[in-house]
Amino acid sequence: MLPELKIQPLRYVLAIVEEGGFNAAARHLHRSQPALSMAIKELEQRLGQALFEKSGKAELTPFGSYCLPRFREFIAQHDRLSRELKAQIDKQAGRLDIAAVPSVASRLMPDILGGFIALYPDLKVSLQDGNAEFVRRQVTSGDADLGIGSVWSKNDGQMNDELDFTPLLRDRVGVVCRIDHPLVEREVLDWQELQGQVLIGNGTSRLLENTPASHLLTQSDFFISNMISLIAMLEAGVGVTTLPQLAFPQGHPRLRFIVIANPRIEREIGLLKSSRRSLSPAAAAMAMFVVERLAN
To answer: For residues 257 and 245, what is the distance between their CA atoms, to the nearest angstrom?
Structure first.
């Protein structure tokens, strides 16, 4: 049967050798000499061999000389592991992977990540962006610790079984058109006013499903999933599209965002995390930070 080694008696052995005797080591360790001697005796009994000669001069036996460098190595590894674990717990080390929908990644995450890294400068953070399905897959597979995005249906079985969703904010859907389009003078729009327009569908058009405006989905003349290409089509005056407000390029000089008032269409943005895996200390800290920032 292998001897079970406790770390403290091994430290006592090193102290006795380094301080030159039991009495000096006891003073250095703030322990009584009898207590130190008893701890060494119990260690020797566990090992089945004496570590010190019986001369009383802290002279190592051949077995003790063999053990000494190995005790040093063991203690060094123990202390290194303890420091690494404490750094993880204190969020002073480690890696954090986040997935977010593009609008959140570009509009909200710079401020969030800047504030978080200011608190935990030694953490390594990776941010990937993609559509809502991409974010969900990243979190479900474990490739991302956290996701920030929207869900199409809270009744989705995978959402209930594999993911926890914490709502954070609501993002209204509107129409985006070029500034010389006839609709640009309107402050709000009814969905029926979009009938007959050249409509460009995109990845967020699914937000129209199960609303009175769902008829527009069958009337789209184009479908463009890439935001850069979509903006280029809008700038060229090819047609109009619907987008959540966060996805609209803020301050764009040639495009205008007009809210759809009837029906009021919104996407709910929230925090996604696995319901089957615990968060690391860093991920838990980030989750709390995101909730505090976006919920307010």
So the answer is: 7
Q: What is the SS3 assignment for 279?
A: coil
φ/ψ (deg, to 5) at 239:
180, -160
Q: How far is CA 138 from the centre of its chain?
A: 11
Q: In which element (H, E) is residue 98 found? A: strand 95-100
- The closest alpha carbon to 263, from 221, 211, 219, belongs to 211
**CA–CA separation, 149 and 105 (whole Å):** 9
Q: Which two tokens stand for residue 166?
A: 């914490």
Which residue in 169, 133, 138 sits closest to 153, CA to CA? 133
Which residues are CB-contacts of 6 (< 8 A; sequence separation ≥ 6)? 43
Which of the pair, 159 or 214, is modelled with greater confidence? 214
Q: Degrees (nearest 5) of the Cα angle 79, 83, 85?
A: 115
Residue-wise pLDDT for 179-207, tens only, equals 999 999 899 999 999 888 999 999 889 88
| 3-state SS, residue 120 | coil
Residue 266: is it exposed, middle or buried by C-beta count within 10 angstroms (0-12/13-18/19+)? middle
C-beta atoms surrounding 113 within 10 Å: 18
